UniProtKB/TrEMBL annotation:
This is Nucleoside triphosphate pyrophosphatase. Its cofactor is a divalent metal cation. Keywords: Cytoplasm, Hydrolase, Nucleotide metabolism. Its EC number is 3.6.1.9. One of its GO terms (biological process) is nucleotide metabolic process. GO terms for cellular component: cytoplasm. The keyword Hydrolase applies. One of its GO terms (molecular function) is nucleoside triphosphate diphosphatase activity. The active site is at D70 (proton acceptor). It comes from Marinicauda algicola.
Length: 193
C-alpha cells in the first residue's frame, strides 16, 4: 500500500520522516482562498474542510491512503492566513503579542475518493509580551519568515521564544498531530502493529 501526503508542508514531511513512515508527497492543487471566502462558523470546521478537500483531490487521482491536513490560526474568531510579506508577518506578530490565540488543525484520510477518517486538534498558544527589540531580532534571525506558517513563527526553533505557554500536542502545533495519524496507519495496515 502507498501512503500519500497531500501537502507540500516541509514541517508535515519532517514529522512523518522523523517517525520512520514511508510516504510520497503529492500536494493537492486547491484554491484555498475560494474555500475560505464567505466561510462562517468555527474556524476548526474550516481547517477540517480544507484537510478533507486536499485528501479528496489527491485520492481521486491516486490509489492508496491519502492524508490531507490543514491548520488555521484563530485570533478572537478572526482567521489569520500566512503572511505574504515581512511587513505583514511583523504586523501579525504585533497583533498576537501578549495575547492568546488558537491553532486549529485537522487531518483527513481518504481512500478511493472517499473520506475514511477525520481528526481535529486545537492548541492554545499564549504569546508573551516581547519587546520591539526582540521582535526586530527575531525577524532578522528567523530565516524566510514567509515559510513559517499561519503564525509567522516556527515553534520547533527560534519561534518558541515568542511564547509564554502552549497547551496542546507539540506535533499538532507543528501542523500534524502525529499520534492519531500513527494509530490510523496501524489500523489501515500502513505501519507495523
Amino acid at each position: 500500500m502507498t501512503l500519500i501526503l497531500a501537502s507540500g508542508s516541509a514541517s508535515r514531511r519532517a514529522i512523518l520522516q522523523s517517525a520512520g513512515i514511508d510516504f510520497e508527497v503529492d500536494p493537492a492543487d486547491l484554491d484555498e482562498d475560494a474555500l475560505k471566502a464567505g466561510f462562517a462558523g468555527d474556524l476548526g470546521d474550516l481547517a477540517l474542510r480544507l484537510a478533507e478537500e486536499k485528501a479528496l483531490a489527491v485520492s481521486r487521482r491516486r490509489p492508496g491512503l491519502v492524508l490531507g491536513a490543514d491548520q488555521v490560526l484563530d485570533h478572537d474568531g478572526r482567521l489569520f492566513d500566512k503572511a505574504k510579506s515581512v511587513e505583514e508577518a511583523e504586523a501579525k506578530l504585533r497583533a498576537l503579542r501578549g495575547r492568546t490565540h488558537w491553532l486549529k488543525g485537522a487531518i483527513a484520510a481518504a481512500r478511493d475518493g472517499d473520506i475514511i477518517w477525520r481528526h481535529r486538534s486545537a492548541c492554545r498558544m499564549v504569546m508573551r509580551d516581547f519587546s520591539d527589540a526582540f521582535l526586530s531580532d527575531y525577524l532578522a534571525r528567523a530565516g524566510d519568515i514567509l515559510t513559517k506558517g499561519v503564525g509567522a513563527y516556527a515553534y520547533e526553533g527560534l519561534g518558541a521564544q515568542l511564547f509564554e505557554r502552549v497547551e496542546g500536542d507539540y506535533h499538532a502545533v507543528l501542523g500534524l498531530d502525529l499520534l492519531p495519524v500513527l494509530a490510523l496507519l496501524r489500523e489501515q495496515g500502513e505501519a507495523p502493529v
